[in-house]
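User: What would this chain look like folded?
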Amino acid sequence: MKKNIALLALVGVGLSGPTLLAHAVGFGQTNDYVYVETNIKTPNGNSIAGFVRSSNGQLQPIPGSPFLTGGAGTQYAGVNVGPGDSDQDIISNPEHTLLFAVNSGSDTIAVFHIQGNGALTQVEGSPFPSGGNDPVSLGLNGNTLFVVNKSGDFGRTTAILPNYTTFQVQQNGKLTPTSDKTNDTTQEFQSTVSVAVGASPSQAFLAPNTNLLFGADFLGGLIQRFQYDGNGDLRQLRPLALPASEFSDTTTGRTPLGLGSHPRYPILYVGFVTVNKLGVYEYGYDGSLQFVRTVPNSGTAICWIRTNQAGTRLYSTDTGTNSVSVYDLSNPEEPSQIQEFTLSGVGNVLQFSLSSDEKYLYALSSRGSTSIPEGQGNILHVLTVNEDGTVAESVSPIVFQEPNDTRPQGVAVVPAN
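Assistant: Here's the prediction, encoded as structure tokens.
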């Protein structure tokens, strides 16, 4: 690894089911509540499906699930790229007391209190305006909530530009805009920064232990870079296009999708979707980005990215092949793929998350192709993580019974208190 990287090493690192007991321990030893957004598009139809993990790894519905968000999911009923391409649709705070979720079809953010048994109750005043159109991704640092408004729901035409914006999370969970400094180029920092029409931003990724926010403008072909100040306002740095050297011809779209970082070193990983490669960048605390290399991905349409806490393994979801890839990070600047695991059933895998103890990986598939029959493909897979970091599927998945035009989105894992 390069000396400058070592010196910059970071310091920190609608469902049915049986009647359940009131707390996670009723199912045996467990560490997790798992939440998925149903994304139903009817007014007030969107909800959060909640599960608790039993001692054998099986997921069981939390009493009262699903929990209404007070809004609507994505309105587009087709399977084209764009509307469904997002990550961090659901997140929690570090204290595991609040859950945040997007209402993509009604331009709001739902905020919930997480109860001791994993049940969700809405914060007073929820849902809150998202500050734009089609919110799809959330990030949280301290009391600042970062929101990506995609303006990319093909079922709702709009003249509103996509944006990155911030809110302050009050002690009671309510959201208030960070400031009224919105798209004001006379201000160095501002609470809302708009990007180009059709850019289709997909993720609000916060680099750990920095004041940096990275974003992937999927259809815009850009990696966005922001710094944020102590008030939560944003300063946009010059965005970067993916390097032309990694694309064999000028007709292949240079589309980034999926951002992740090493837990100890300032390395940013980026999915190069159309060429099935994992991009590796070094970043500085000033927001600078230096392209290092790409490594191949044996799946098709690499999307979302996660690393384990030790920084020894990287996982990606490969939407086109409905598979999960595993990389060895012995050399963090040159990941080496050691597995591509195809999920059971049909679907196109998108969002995923590791369990809090990293013994399981929860991967959400949906119907992202016309080759998948309507009403099929909406599955939450429970993968077992082996000692060497590879994965296997030995636990029964959750099959969502939702309207044919619905694609669930987002996976959030909250340790059971």
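The radius of gyration is 20 Å. If you want, I can go into more detail on any region.
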